[in-house]
Design goal:
Elements (H helix, E strand, L loop, with lengths): L6 E3 L10 E3 L5 H14 L6 E2 L2 E2 H6 L4 H23 L3 H9 L12 H11 L6 H18 L7 H15 L1 H4 L2 E3 L5 E3 H7 L3 H23 L8 H12 L9 H11 L11 H17 L6 H16 L13 H6 L4 H24 L7 H12 L12 H11 L11 H18 L5 E10 L2 E11 L3 E4 L7 E8 L2 E2 L7 E4 L7 E10 L4 E11 L5 E4 L7 E7 L4 E9 L5 E5 L5 E3 L3 E2 L6 E12 L4 E4 L7 E7 L4 E10 L2 E6 L5 E3 L3 E4 L7 E11 L6 E4 L7 E6 L4 E10 L2 E6 L5 E3 L10 E9 L9 E4 L5 E5 L4 E9 L5 E4 L5 E3 L3 E3 L1
Parallel strand pairs: 7-13
Antiparallel strand pairs: 1-2, 3-4, 5-6, 7-8, 9-12, 10-11, 10-13, 14-17, 14-20, 15-16, 17-18, 18-19, 21-24, 21-27, 22-23, 24-25, 25-26, 28-31, 29-30, 31-32, 32-33, 34-37, 34-40, 35-36, 37-38, 38-39
Helix pairs in contact: 1-6, 3-6, 5-6, 7-9, 7-10, 9-10, 10-13, 12-13, 14-16, 16-19, 18-19
Amino acid sequence: MLTTAGPTVQAAGTDDAAKVTAAEPASWETQLAALKSAVAAGNWGNLTVNNQTVSAVLAGVTDEASFNSAWSEVAQTIISNTVASKFAKPADQTAFIQAQSTDAQYAGKTNAEVLSEIIQSGAAALDFGAVLNHLITYTTTEADQFQPATDDPVKTNKNNLTAFLQANSKIGQLLVEKKDGTTTTVTAIVAQAADADSLAQAWSAVAQAVITNEMQAKLNLPDTTSAASRNTMSKLLAAKANVATVANNQVLANVVAANTPSTENPELNVATAMGNICEAVDSAVANTQLAADWQENKDSLLAFLQSSNLGSLTAPTAGGSLTALVNGVQDTAGLTKAWGETAQAVLINEMQTKLGLADTTSVASRSKLADLLNTKSSDTHYSGDTNGDVFEKVIAANTPSAANPTPNFATLVTSLRSYVTDAVKAENLIGQSQVVIRDWANGLIINQRSTTVTSRQTIPLYAAAHDGLSFDSVKIDGVTQNTTNGTLNFSRTFSQSTTYYVDYYFIKSTGYTEKDARGMVYIKNTNGAALYSNMNMTAQITDRNLKQGTAWASYKKVYDAQGNVVGYNLGGQQYVKASDVQETPIGDVTTQTFNGVVSVINPWTPVYSDSAMTKQINNWTLDAGTRWQVFQKVFIDGKLAGYNLGGQQFIKANAVQESTTPSTPQQQIIPNSGVVSIISPYGARVYSDAAMTKDTGRVLPQGARYQYNNEVYTKGQLTAFNVGGNQFISVADIATQIPLYRGSGTFTVRYPANPRWGVAVLDSNLQVLKIIPAGTHWRSYGIGILSDGRTYYSLGGNHWVPTDYGSVQ
């Protein structure tokens, strides 16, 4: 290009285009010097080109060919920087580059074509400053006149979902559960979507329906509603695929999240998104080994016997221990027999315990057991049945069957134990007892009344009204009870008449008042906030605790006699103390660099993927007593809340304690999976240790892709990937963690709207890197999905181009 005479481009004035005059050819050294001078004058030297500054790119020029490449890269970089300064959204940047020029002298050409033309015309120039300023002037002028699309993403996504369901009517007719517990069709949920929140729910419903439909097809299920089909699908979701570190349900949840519209990616291609979800389901089915129902039931039965220490009980019919009986199961028939034998043994053991029998074999003991079994049930659900009949029905209802393939044995045992307890009590019920209700204030009984109650009868008791006093608490036999505004449901089971004392305690009225004041409160205590049913906040509501960080609407403020806010009314008779909440949102999470070691003090300590520690990583907990290198402290509202183990791995501070002993491990191997591509021209050396000190002599070739199972962190920094067994490769030799699928070959540029247009090349952050001309050919290493949910061909070196902008052969 530099050996023939070329044009010199002079900066265009206000009303005229750039003037081009003939020039004598110049050597590449002369042109390089001129270009360096222009870059320095324009302060462009620190702009980045493929992870290098413009100055560094120019410093690497060694000949005519490398100068031509450098000139193109410098010009493209300045264009990209100018476009990015005008448009924040990558989609708007791409649309602008592909838009038609409004400049009359470039009629019929796109901005991409015009900019390419200016770059090519100025390649042999010496006044590169004029050419580059002309590029900036043109880009700025055109950008000021360009109007980005303003489509409503909610409407667009709803229309796309509706069209998808019309083309896939079976999916649209699948039922999903709504928040109120009722069911409706997927099509109906989409039709009702009116805003971003309801559309997100609709999108999730469609995704779940697609997953269900795809599982039915790939698992060859007759339906999706029968117990057997639901059980098979549940097993698939709970299992892990080959070499996977998390269960399939988590994998699918991640895929759904990546293919759901968000603030960053408001519009997604429905067909592509659902195709990605189907592909994830297909992969899970193909790579997951599902255990037979009898095998799963055998494992759960053995686990129960071990955890409950009941494995040594004798099987009533087969003899021998229950553990030995269950271990010998080889098929469905054997499991059914072992299940029944185990249930019978546990039942007999429970009856022996509740009846206080020394054994179950003596004549006296057998007689008492028989009496209990032959007694008519006192449970109204089993009217006319004996206790023995009820036990048979309960066991039968909780034994594996087509309608209930994998029941929970612990649930069966809980039902049997509860029934045995009630049946034994029912054998001894006699007479009535007296309940004495006493009202206390300042240590004195100020009122007393009494009533009678029959064993197992439930009667309501109420707090009396006393002038100048407020109800505080109630106790039965010294034990504080939960009430609602002083109302207590009293019930006892007894075998002989007795007297129960119910003591109501009153305190001097607090003088609390409440006034209307609508707003929001945010739970700030780590243990949450208790709810109370009275304004004095002395009567706690049973089993109601609001979690830390949650936000609640408040309708009134409660003031003490001095005018201080002491509580809030959250609607109806629901109050929360002011000390448990704040009126401003919970503060941002902050971190502080910290290089130290913590020791785990809680068993099964969960690990989280976010610094706020709200997103628990499935199937990963830390054992008590283990020690871990940490690299940051995490503070929430200024208080120490957790530690960073490296990367996106966090643990809560209340589960560990800081250790004064220096850490010895330098590497941490974190379970994770994905695909990496080898980009080093020398390939990637394989090491047999995570520290990469033991070279195996094996080298993975450039361009190859490998599945990895673990990530290696050295002092908190990602340094290597484990690609199976004791095989580790350096992070420096791989291109990206974005998984690549089919689509390798030769990519030919062809923009559908106009085959003469070039197309933009993006990086993985969706920033425009350069324009490649129509009809040119490029090597494709496969197809990846970037953060906008669209599919892209990988051209290597973090260069990506949308799959609908050309084809691969």
